[in-house]
Amino acid sequence: MSLPHIFLFILLFAGTLSAAPPHYPSPIELAVSPDGARLLVLCEGTDELTVIDAHTGKIAGRVQVGRVPKGLWLSGRYAYVANSWSDTVSVVDTDTLQVTRTLKTGFEPNAVVTDRASATIYTANRIGNDISVIDQASGVETRRLAAGRGASYLTPTPDGQSLYCTHIYPNIGLHRAPPESEITVVDAEHQIVRERQPLHNVAGVFHVAFSSDGRLGLACQLRPKNLVPLAHVEHGWVFGDSLTLFGADVGEPVQVLIDELEHYYTMPFGVVVAPDKSVAYISTTGANSVTVIDIRRLLEFVRAASPRQRRALANDLSASAHFVAARIPVGRAPKGIALSPDGALLYVANRLDDTVSVIDTATRKVVRTIELGGPAELTPQRRGEQLFFDARFAFHNGFSCANCHLESTFDGLQWDLEPDGFGIDIVDNRLLEDIDGTEPFKWNGGNPDLETECGPRTEKYFYRSQSYSREELGDLVSYIKSMPLRPNRYRLPNGDLTAAQERGKDIFERTRRKDGTPIPESNQCGFCHSGRHYTNQKQVDVGSGKWSDRSPIIDVPQLTNIALTAPYLHDGSARSLEEIWTVFNPKDTHGVTNDLVKDELNDLIEYLKTL
Amino acid sequence: MKHKTWCVFLSLLPLAASAQPMPRYHWQNFTTADGLPDNRVFSVAVDGARIWAGTENGLGLYENGKWKVFRPADGLAHRAVTYVAVDKTTHDVWAATMGGLSRYSAGRFDTYTQLNSGLSNDVVYGVGVQGDYVWAATAAGASRLNTRTGEWSLFNERNTPMYEIWTYAVSPGTSKVYYAVWGAGVLEYDVKTERWKDYNDPDGETEMVLFKDQGLIHEITTSVSWMEKEKILWVATYFGASRYDGRNWHNFMQKDSGLPSDFMNQVKGVDGNRAWFSTDKGLAYYDGENWAVYRPSLQTGKPEMLVRDAQGKVTQVETDTAPAHNYTFGVDFQGNDIWVATAKGLSHGIRIQEEVSRNVTRRNDR
To answer: What tens digit of pLDDT does each residue of A296-342 get?
Structure first.
């Protein structure tokens, strides 16, 4: 190679490097070593476990783990990392900073814990809606337990006898019924689901924490008000940010809001209880703060309430004045939190500015901010991501984009978005991943681009504010367009289709009915659901309109990762893919399916799950 | 008079059964008066100390001396529960009903129907769990759910030798899965090769064997029980029972065995040599040589236990209790005890240790 060629190569290589999007660490969870000397920070943006000297705040090492790690557990010298996009657990030796084992899990593990003896590993699998039980010695998954929908977080009880699993999505229920979620309680001795604690009117449940005596449990959660029109933002009828309290200290579980009458503290995510049970700390992602709960006052307040008053607490915005001791501002989008063993320091992972806040729990002030070494420059996408999770734009800071698009996905709910009266134009929430090129937006196709969807539409109907500046809107749209599509779990490992999926593909692409008569082009699956995203970006009437819709004309939705986003149809009335055709397609207006036998419909669905 | 004569005759018979003491039970019977959802009990499944009863009007759970009842209002697919199976790994319970398939897991029902899932038909007669797969026997063929991926696979006349699609029962094992197909014999699924094979009337004309042990006794099969360890298949039909060892068939009929009737709702193997038969005329046990029948007497209604030895000699064994009714639907085992689903309640057979041999010895001494 001549010198000019080498020079050209270097230039091109450098150009390639500069074109690659920067990776921000995006710390999501953290843990403190038993001696308090080290802090382990899980960075989902760089697929790393970062080890920090807790005394100096210096980074002591980084360990590369699987893709998009979401869950972290520390047991002795080993750290366990749930790699959500790899469907694996990395076992990390924290002394040598090496991954010693990589174990297979169910679909999209989001949390990992071990039992007390570290003989069994458990993962909560978000897409699988289940819990993997893995034998530590053999590394083999020995059983799969049915959890709720979107199983995402696991917490052992202090005595180690039970594991509490919470869920980012509500269970699939009846159409337009209040959302119902659950806490799935696993008997750690027998490795079975022992009970399911119902969480009424709750969707989006995050971490759970227990007091050290095991008598009090706290679950962080959202209470969506999706059955009333979003016109009622000013009434506080959009989201409540709340806790479910359970355990011997409270008797029957009770829900309490951490919000205030004129200020919401959105997205309670991480929670820890002080060793002496005096206070609980809750990270509120959309409020960029930590809420401090005085547990003694909280218990006195709850115990003094009559059963009727306890039920009312779930919506009582004035209640928090009785037990919230402080709000501590931290970095952007605080997620995982952890206490030092003596409870003197609280560590907070600030996901969107790549830092860890260290809070002195005595003074309740941030005493140090640890930089995790992310890129100094913020790209438009990164700035947009910060906006996406920030609730300061909404009336009373009530919610952010991420309230409905949980962790940039969806929420499994149907909303009444328009200020046109009760129950008109109910719309199902949709996945945001890989949506660039699927415009127009909204189920009626009314928004030609994301700028309209996220700008004036959001200002008027969602936030009730002036919302974003022109630059901010550009950043936000840039972020949304950059959301990657997660791996599809339903194809064979090499990307091929199974025999059933191949048969389904033939049905999807067919141009004739089984009797040989032609199917009009406009009624062929692949006509509307065409292109890379399986949408022709048109609006059509497929006969799925309801009495509550102002128009039966529906925007053709993209089908990418459609398997994840039940329920279906524009209003979420089809609880499963099957119901789209078994219930809502009596006249073959939504594709020709009534000549199919059940086997063939199953094949079609198996194919759709691969898209 | 006739009955009295029969009893005297029985009591005078020398008891060859003394060499093979047959299990004897104290029967405790449950009805709606005790909290059972309905007296017509189609299926019973034991899960440790918990007893599940599938009845005509709900699913019952007997635990700590009390019955809990589940009905459609609780999330059950349909009130008529035709079969119950327990996933021994997760302890989830699968209920086959006349309106779909339900999974009960720690207080939550998940229901699968032909509309909301890939299940082939809402009329589900049987269900079995093997590893990650749930196999259902429906009125429109076999359905298999992969609980890890959610994939449904259907097996019917289009992709198996199943010329009738009315599947009545399923018995899944690690190497083979067997279906009783009402009117189409037995279907065998090889887990390794994923191929199906059918067992029917050998001559293909009469639905039944012409000669004893020629093949499967009759094509109207109601139940199968696969003994994975011994590789033995037990089959129940409305016209007798069969045992298949992979090479030879051995058939049992009322006229040449201790079966009290050729009409059977279920067979459940203990192992390759022993099995329980739920018939319309009592519950029968076969230990590989001898037979025992447990029932309220068909004539008097009084408790009755009959033992038939290998030579065909029948004797009556003293007993003061009997299953709730002679019309039996199925059994399950709880250690040495047995639970029996009958048309008039659920029966718990509490094993009486050593009693039979002592009793028989006393009779021989007389």
So the answer is: 999 999 999 999 999 999 999 999 999 999 999 999 999 999 999 99
Query: What is the rounded distance in angstroms from the CA atom of residue B166 to the CA atom of residue B196?
Result: 16
> Which pLDDT band holds residue B11 (cuts at 50, 70, 90)?
very low
Residues 6+ apart with CB under 8 A from B170: B126, B127, B128, B135, B136, B137, B142, B177, B178, B179, B180, B224
Q: Number of helices and strands (H, E) in chain B?
A: 2, 30
List, in sequence order, the alpha helices (H) in A346-406. Answer: 380-389, 401-404
The answer to whether residue A18 scores a pLDDT higher than 80 is no
Closest Cβ opposite residue A578 in set B117, B149, B158: B117
Ordered domains of chain A (ranges, CATH): 41-200 (2.130.10.10), 381-482 (1.10.760.10), 499-608 (1.10.760.10)
Cα separation, B253 vs B239, in Å, equals 7
Tell if the CB–CB gap between A598 and B107 is shorter than 8 Å: no
Q: How many residues are listed for chain A in this entry?
A: 611
Identity of the amino acid at A246: F
Q: A365-371 and A355-360: which strand pairing?
A: antiparallel
Task: Calculate how close chain A gets to B29, using CA atoms only, in Å.
Answer: 29
Q: Provide the shortest C-alpha distance from residue A522 to chain B (in Å).
A: 25
Interface of B with A in 128-157 (CB under 8 A): 132, 140, 147-149, 151-154, 156
Residues of A in contact with B107 (CB under 8 A): 195-196
Give contacts of A578 with chain B, Cβ < 8 Å: 115-118
Q: In this structure, are residues A427 and A415 in contact, taking their beta carbons and an 8 Å threshold?
A: yes
CB-based contact A336:A39 (threshold 8 Å):
no
pLDDT in tens, B204-260: 888 888 888 999 999 999 999 999 999 999 999 999 999 999 999 999 999 999 999
Element (H, E) at A502: helix A499-509
Q: Is B251 on the interface with A (CB under 8 A)?
A: no
- Dump pLDDT digits (tens) for A24-69: 999 999 999 999 999 999 999 999 999 999 999 999 999 999 999 9
Residues 153 through 192 of chain A touching chain B, CB cutoff 8 Å: 171, 182, 184-185, 192
* CA-wise closest residue to A157 among A116, A97, A123: A116
Q: Give the single-character DSSP code of A517.
A: P
CATH of domain B42-292+330-345: 2.130.10.10
Which residue's entry shows tokens 């022109």?
A470
∠ CA A95-A134-A337 to the nearest 5 degrees? 55
Interface test with A, best of B149, B162, B165 (most A CBs within 10 A): B149
Structure tokens at B11: 């009591």
Q: Tell me the ipTM for this assembly.
A: 0.91
Nearest CA in chain B to A130: B148
User: Could you give the CA distance from residue B178 to residue B221 in angstroms, rounded to a whole number?
Assistant: 11
C-alpha span between A81 and A14 (Å, rounded): 33
- Say whether B118 and A145 touch across the interface (CB within 8 A): no
Structure tokens at A309: 């008053």
